[in-house]
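Quick one: structure for this chain?
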Amino acid sequence: MSNSYKHAFKGRNKGEICVHLSQSESEEEICLKISDNGVGLPEFSDLDLNKSLGITLIKTLANQLDAEFDFRNEEGAVFEFRFEKKDKAGELDTALLEA
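Got it. Here's what it folds into:
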């Protein structure tokens, strides 16, 4: 979100940053999607991805969540994390799924 705030709206007076949290129909997977309607992401080469602090932070968050992540341009920048729903202890809470 801070990268969107800092970089997405250069030369503009306003823009939108959206945060969307949802779960799959099976209720076993969570999706966190952060998007903006700004200028979008620059085209990255594999070398650039390894040097980018922002991408490094995103990879670290994905690792902490044990999540898959994706980023793309779609009328602005979109970052999406998908991870398994777990209880506070980090284990899948099957009781919640059955409720």
